[in-house]
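General statements about sequence and structure are easier to judge against a single worked case. For one protein, we set the task of working out the structure tokens from the amino acid sequence alone. The sequence in question and its structure tokens are set out directly beneath this paragraph.
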Amino acid sequence: MKILALVGTNANFSYNRILLQFMKKHFKQMADIEIYEISKLPAFSVDVPLSEQTEVWKLKQKVKAADGVVFSTPEYDHGIPAALKSATEWLSYHTTVLKHKPVMVVGVSYGRQASARSQVQMRQILISPDCDANLLPGNEVLIGGASRVFSKDGRLIDEKMRDNLERCFTNFIEYIQVFENIDEEEVHMSIKRPTISDAYINFPTGRLSLKEVQQIFSTIPFEIDLVDSSDRFAWYSDKPNREHVRSVASLNEPVTECHPPKAVPVVTKIINSFRDGEKDVVTRPLWMNGHRSLIQYYALRDVDGHYLGTIEFTGSVEYILNLFENGGWDKKPDATTGASAHDEGGDQAAAPVADASTGASEADDDPASETAGSPVANEAADEDATTGASESGSVDADDESADATTGASEN
């Protein structure tokens, strides 16, 4: 189980950070706890340019990917620190990443009342309409006398407080599991198991069962994402080892939430060009996760040409390029190549055949003819909206020079 734990202060030294570090070690058999420093975030303001919100976007992706979130808060002037209030504003302004997300509040302070007042305030914020989180009720972790209850090596040595922390965190894990079971039964069953398993879809070219459709999308070498006509992330193929890691938590989100902030103008430009009928395809070769990949975007239209959305195909092309570079197309046709039964061996099968894309004969002695149609991978390509990559992708989304035509051939 993956837990995201937010250090509720930007102070260089904080017992709340020490508490989370202790929890990370102490509960490592129960959960994978990732500690996040809110000091990375810019101060909240509606006027902060989108290009300066990259760290905010990264935090949102972490919250979406987590099974639960722990907020650790100190207490300043009977309330939460300004930095923590700013962080919760980023997680609730024009976003729903905390909606129905299981959350827990803990806190440490020097006084005997611990961080009781700030925790009350934090709980009120988390259940507010803009956050709408699933707050773990009760289970108060109030650790006072911080300098006395932690050892020099960061262990919580007060036995009663440690027992209470263990009880509360165990309850939090069980609380998360309750909502996971509900989601699995009522929401996500269609991801792995179509709701009507024996149903068939009739196409003009044949009939497929829902199970076959699911497995086709999981088997084809390219992964597929769909942004619908309202610019929301509508669907992705459930394929293992995806280049772009997707989550059902992102479904129905605006496409602007699925891309790094600096890439948003780029993806918006591409989608608008599809919607306006200016383009139908954008292609981009680039390096991802250490190998050469190809991303292609297609405008999805109905038979009357009305825009239905944007499809993104992404996949590694190393296998194809290796075949090309190792002379895979130089061999004579045989039974395994799909050669026509009318071809009869020898010189006839080896006769030069014109390349439909270059017009060049395979027997052409000019080296340029062998490379003229060769794909070109852009090693320096940065991740931007045209890659559709999640933050864990291959390249840096911070390149401001990327635009809708960077590295792309436009058909």
Q: What stands out?
A: The domain at 2-186 is CATH 3.40.50.360 (Rossmann fold). The CA atoms of residues 203 and 209 lie 11 Å apart. The longest strand covers residues 291-301. The chain has two domains: 2-186, 220-317+378-410.
